[in-house]
Amino acid sequence: MLKGVPKILSPELLKVLCEMGHSDRLVISDGNFPAESMGKDAIVIRCDGHGVPELLDAILQVFPLDTYVEKPMNLMEVMKGDNVETPIWETYKEIVAKHDSRGADAIGQIERFEFYDESKTAYAIIATGESALYANIMLQKGVVTD
């Protein structure tokens, strides 16, 4: 164990976050996301017993969001015709506001199938046990300036 590092961040996950460079992308997926098939060229880390919000909060304590792009965090857009509420997105906005001065302005949306395509180029995918629908997020890493 280490001081100052959230306990939810496993050694494997910390290693991956540290290996990532500027502009590399990380997907934190819900339990329905096809992490293994999307992550054939990525590192897939299983965190099945955890939800996306708790992982997002812990990751953003050590992971800077990219300041060179307008929307360094993107959500999977709800498909037209899907009658789905996404209250978890409000939780994401609160978490991002704690760690990035842009708050909700740092968050964008990507159409579902485009999100899948972009996930195939991510550095890593974290597969969670999150049960909320449309809870997938993609983060773009920034530069550590401290």
UniProtKB/TrEMBL annotation:
Record Gene3D superfamilies: RbsD-like domain (3.40.1650.10)
Source taxon at top rank: Bacteria
Keywords: Isomerase
Catalysed reactions, semicolon-separated: beta-D-ribopyranose = beta-D-ribofuranose; alpha-L-fucose = beta-L-fucose
GO-annotated biological processes: fucose metabolic process
GO molecular function: D-ribose pyranase activity; fucose binding; L-fucose mutarotase activity
A matching Pfam family: RbsD_FucU
Record carries keyword Isomerase: yes
Protein name: Fucose isomerase
Species name: Diplocloster agilis
